[in-house]
Amino acid sequence: MALQITDSSSQELLAGGKPVVMDFWAEWCGPCRMIGPYVEELAEAYKDRVVIGKVNVDENDELPGTYGIRNIPTLLFFKDGALVDKLVGATSKAAIEEKIKKLL
């Protein structure tokens, strides 16, 4: 299951050494609900190698502001604590997994 990432937990995750994927989403967002199952499946498949979590933009305003999130869903990919890639909008599970594999 994807981790719930908050404004207060994000820095600790990024400093943890593992690659991190943050899915910025909202409950009311149709495309977010469409890719949600992909994010959950990939979180389970890569749980030992990559931290994959969800950031609810309605409950956390610091992270979306920090990373300039203007559209959701947006997935951000971090390696060694640095932002290295992103996907904006609904996409396929294969496209998300391809970006995850580049982090490894």
Mind sketching the topology for me?
Blueprint: E1 3-4, H1 10-14, E2 20-25, H2 30-45, E3 51-56, H3 62-66, E4 74-79, E5 82-88, H4 93-103
Parallel strand pairs: 1-3, 2-3
Antiparallel strand pairs: 2-4, 4-5
Tell me the Rg in angstroms.
Answer: 12 Å
CATH top level is Alpha Beta
Helix content: 25-40%
Q: What count of helical segments does DSSP give?
A: 4
N to C succession of SSEs: EHEHEHEEH
Can you describe this structure?
The protein is α/β, with parallel strands linked by helices. The chain is globular and about 30 Å long. It is built from four helices and five strands, in the order E-H-E-H-E-H-E-E-H. The protein has helices at 10-14, 30-45, 62-66, 93-103; strands at 3-4, 20-25, 51-56, 74-79, 82-88. Strands 1-3-2-4-5 form a five-stranded mixed β-sheet, with helices on one face. The protein has a single domain, classed as Glutaredoxin. The longest helix is centred in the middle third of the chain and has 16 residues, at 30-45.
Give a quick rundown of the structure.
With 104 residues, the protein is an alpha/beta fold. Helix content is 36%, strand content 26%. The chain has one domain: Glutaredoxin, CATH 3.40.30.
Give me some keywords for this one.
five-stranded mixed beta sheet; 5 strands; globular; 4 helices; alpha/beta; 104 residues; Glutaredoxin
